[in-house]
Amino acid sequence: MTNKGTIPHTSTFNDLKEKKFEITREVNKTLIDTEKLHMSLYAVAQVPGTSQEGYVFEIVNKYSDVLYTEFWLGDITGPLNASGNTFVEPGEKFYFFIPNVSKTPGSLVGISNPKAILTTAYNSAKDGTVTEQKQKTELDLNIPPKSE
User: Fold this and answer.
1) What domain of life does the native source organism fall in (predicted)?
2) CATH code: domain of residue 47
3) Rounded to 5 degrees, what are φ and ψ at 10?
């Protein structure tokens, strides 16, 4: 990966549609690996020129239908508060950056027991009809210690 990506258009960061990020810590932690979906916590990244961090998720849609993902990270009062959603086409690998917009941010690496709720659904690639209803999964975003 080239250490660059975009913030999703649903992000409310300064009302900008697109920003770049720089990876500050590679993680490569598998969160989900099924016949239809592979997802990992790929890295922690930072918005250039700021101290704002976010998570980079690697999403691979291994299924023949379009994947919809919706992330809710942390809560509105804690050190982690982030959300975002995206569609991933069949066979597509997508790196999704979700910035932390908490009013009390700290290093994401240092947050104790961070959790996220992931909602997924599948839609027909041909006509957009729902082929699999929304399902929720809790994700453990603890970052393992660096191996020396």
Assistant:
1) Bacteria
2) 2.60.40.1150
3) -85, -5
Residue 16 within any structural domain of the chain: no
Q: How much is the mean pLDDT over the chain?
A: 84
Max CA pair span of the chain: 49
Residue 7 lies inside a defined structural domain of this protein: no
Summarize pLDDT for 45-56 with one digit per residue, the tens.
Answer: 988 888 889 999
| DSSP assignments along 8-61, one per residue | -TT--STT-S----EEEEEEEEEEEE-SSEEEEEEEEEE-TTS--EEEEEEEEE
Q: How many domains does the chain have?
A: 1
Report whether pLDDT(5) > 80.
Answer: no
Q: Which residues contact 127 (CB under 8 A, 6 or more apart)?
A: none
Return d(Cα 144, Cα 59) in angstroms, integer.
20
Q: Decide if 15 is inside a domain.
A: no
111: left (phi over 0), alpha (psi -120 to 50) or beta: beta
What is the reported pLDDT for 13?
Answer: 38
Report whether 57 contacts 95 (CB < 8 A). yes
Structural domain boundaries, residue 110 = 22-140
